[in-house]
Please model this.
Amino acid sequence: MEYILDLDRSYFNLAELDGKDLLFADPMNATGGSLVTVVKYLLEQGIKPRSVKFFNVISALKGSLRIIRALDNITMYTLWMDPVLNERAYIMPGLGDAGDRINGKDEDEHPRDMIRLVADYGTNITGLYRSQLRIIEETVLHH
Model:
């Protein structure tokens, strides 16, 4: 994947971002590459944000860890953490677009919800989330 940043021609006055709280939102965080690339670009331009906050609905553990390791002074908020990425960097087991690509789209008569995902992937799916919380606590909270 190639990132093309042309913030020099954007409507942002980069100098106005200096010293501010920067907020970023993305529905899904898979690899963390987009956020890391943009924030590092801003830092290279001399921007020194007061803080950086990142909001997303679904995140892969790998992407979250990449972000917190690559960027200082960042706080991440995510509603749902999926454990892994596949070889195409799709979040697994995957909800939303990535899940549609992997499993096909929901049928109108049979939409998938958490119960359907457990049926599809087995009851050990809950164990994945418990174990990833331990990893997050150890990595992020140093517990």
Summary: The chain has one domain: 7-140.
